[in-house]
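thought: fold this chain, then report.
action: predict
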Amino acid sequence: MNTFFSKLKNISKESTFPVLMALCCVHGLNDLIQSIVAAVYPMLKEDLSLSFAQIGLITLVYQIASSVFQPVVGLAFDKKPYVGSLPLGMVFSTIGIIVFAFSMSMASVLLAVFLVGVGSSTTHPEASRITSLASHGRRGLAQSIFQVGGNFGTSIGPLLVALVVAPNGRRYILCFLIVSALAFYAMRPICRWYSSYLNEIRNGASCKVTFHKRPLSSRKTLFVICILMVLIFSKYIYMASLTNYYTFYLIERFGVSIKMSQIYLFVFLVATAAGTLIGGPVGDRYGRKPVIWASILGTAPFSLAMPHCGLAMTVVLSFCVGFMLSSAFPAILLYSQELLPNKLGLVSGLFFGFAFGVAGVASAILGDFADKYGIDAIYDFCAYMPLLGLVACFLPNLKKTSR
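observation:
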């Protein structure tokens, strides 16, 4: 922990530190808006008399919109950077939440979540790439600062929905336009710095921009990317079960209110923020592979125990699961960027997109599964997914390889 604060103190002296903090804020505000979708599910299910399968379909459309476009956006802006990319993404999200507030049919709900998803597709790969460019070599810490903003925003969203929207009705989602306005304001220093950065490159002051040799051959790189995809698959199937169905599980099994279920979801999401903050710096010091290995496989004891516990222990175990599992993604993302160091936008879009896509497909399948076998069956089945973390043993140590 002392090492983490020492690195944080060092990076705070860099000229780009305000840009990194602004990126953290933008990620947090963006993901706060994104989290509204899942947080409103219990209200939406009641308002429109939806089944769990329909809830899964809504999540599928949202996650596909927020995943399919991400590699495309990342590759496009790798080739032709655009200063206004982040505000463009927020425009889509803002329109989406306005439509979501007034949606009274399944079709309008799907349109709303599609627009919010497209906003996410634009924001994530671009913000992640700019974070790497502004990191001054401390990419693990910089990505953790960036990622923890997103996790914090995701955790705050359900709490605000419980306090503001749940007591007053779904129209109060319009209050989140304030969040959108704050995001536009936070993007100003990022756009100024990024514009200056691009001007330096165009004017020939490109000494900071170098071509990095890939650490592995093309064949080995492809194999390692497949292993990383398996790890993303295991992580996000279990995360989808908690993010989208945890409130229903608590309501049905323990009889808690909608408001209390959102507060318990907040506890889980705060744990994911804490785990994300730790994952990057620990990976900088000990390597990405040990963090990936410990994070995913280390979740298994908690996930396997959770379906057999009472309410209090379920909340405690959900905190442990969130903390352990969330530390994996910064390490996986940075590991993949080290594999393809000249394609930061493409890699960020590919892995963010695949993560969201897996979560979307898993949510749709799990929704149908819950309709047929009950909500408890989801957690009996998904508890075994972290065991797929065993495949991390096939990952090479990139530091040793590059040396």
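thought: worth noting. The first helix runs from residue 2 to 11.
final: tokens above.
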